[in-house]
Amino acid sequence: MSSRVTITALAAVMILTAAGCSKQSAEQHAAPSVPAFKGAIVATVATTDLPEQMTAVGTVRAETSALLAARIPGVVATLAVREGDRVRKGQSLLTLHAQESTAGAVGAAAVVEEATHSLDEARSRQKLAESTFARYEKLLAEQAVTRQEFDQRQSEREVATQGVARAEARLTQAREAAKSATAIADYTRITAPITGIITQKNIDLGATVFPGSPLLTVEETDRYRLELAAPESLLGRVRVGQRVAVTLDGQASAQTGTVSEVVPQVDPATRTFLVKVSLAATSGLRSGQYGQGAFTIGSSPGITVPRSAVREQGAITAVWIVDQAKTCRLRIIKPGRVMADRIEVIAGLTNGDQLIVGGTMPTVEGARVE
Fold it and tell me: CA-CA distance, 342 to 354, in Å (whole number)?
């Protein structure tokens, strides 16, 4: 009997001890208080008309570029620039050694000098013939010379005048030939036709070139355009002066370009046609840069949110919303097009959702908004 009472008392003690431990464990695992934050800017999600766009890809090109080619045969004697160098208009870029052209210019200058001396001699003979004719004219009036002698002096004067005319013609011809020879000799000096940057170098020092051989390419750096390969379905719907949303590789922000030229010929291989879009902002651009242009062809309802409200973590894109209980929830969305400072949301949001767009942003799921 005593043993049974002892066991019963011991069991009661164990039950009380277990109950106490359970209560203590429950208190230790009690849920923490819900955090709250202030200063969030909340906006109501609403559907708006969004432009329907068709995208074309293309390449950035300088609006003005110059391909310099050799006009005469020769050997590259000096080369003062390399790819990437900036040059100014009229700056000497390279020179060619062309002995034939140089010799031709020297010979033409000698011919001009000889023709000048011949003209001087002809004018001296003309002056003598004029004075002789004047004397014989007086003598004839005084009947001191015969008519035949007078006619002879008159003929000499006419011949002298014609000699001056021929000498003048030869001098003019020699000067024009000298100009041509000098111009050809000047082809040995290649200068920059525009201010810009050297984008391509096709020759090296000591290389032999022939007429038509490409030497250098110079491009302006203050005016660029995006040359787009537009789908054939846009033919007739793209107009000069039309505004185009442009996105360029390597630039975070988009910009707006203007269609400056439409080439209506369709490439049978790609079924595209060329559209040239002038770019207003040229900072950071380079020739050959990849770009996209979006042509607006209509509108349709959709939802956009500020880019500042979107959170990206790895492959997940989400936004913070506030539910009816004033609690923050992280909502995963499917983003679409980027439109300046806003992003299209294809899925994940509906009309009436309360979206946190700025201010103090939550840091934990379930936080309470005040």
Answer: 17
